[in-house]
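Journal club prep, shared notes

We agreed each person brings one worked example of a sequence with its structure written out as tokens. Mine is Mechanosensitive ion channel. I'm keeping it raw so we can talk through how to read the token line rather than staring at a rendered picture. Sequence first:
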Amino acid sequence: MRVLPLGIAVVTAVSGLALAGAPGSLLDPDDRALAKILLVAGTVLFLVGGVALTRLLAGDIDRRFDQRGLQAAGSIVKIVVTVVGYVLVALTALGLMAVPVQQLLLGGAITGVVVGIAAQQTLANVFAGLVVLFVRPFKVGDTIEVRSGALNGPFTGRVIALGLTYVTLSTEDGTLLLPNSGVLASGLTVNLPSSASV
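Then the structure, token by token:
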């Protein structure tokens, strides 16, 4: 990770927090205009530092995954780190400005439950895809047999792509996309002899 930009981002965020917290502790209580200016300036400084820090961390994580050949997993982890970082920065900034965030958190929790229920199958495939990418029960180029009643199998083919939602096989009948959750729930034979390969 680049140390200088990281240091600048951390110093900016911490300075913003200190500046935003100064009005209540250092200033004359009668000087409200200066207190408001310092509060807004500190919050803006914190936002700039927090966003920069989030982007630096997410980019560094993505590069580390790319170096290990896990581009798809790196992309999803980068998105998760970015979203979580931005939400934390935004909630902290709102807290500095004394904006009540309880209703926002409650609304976000309810929305999360509704979206989670609606996207249950898609999320199952994404999480199964992360398991396939991290655990690597098979890799691109392996010849596998997937035995599953749920997928109407068995399917035999060479793995040509691993994604977050599907495993792509090259079979005698063409290209086949199998959902990751179905593949993980199936019996697998990996690295079949060359006579069984496609």
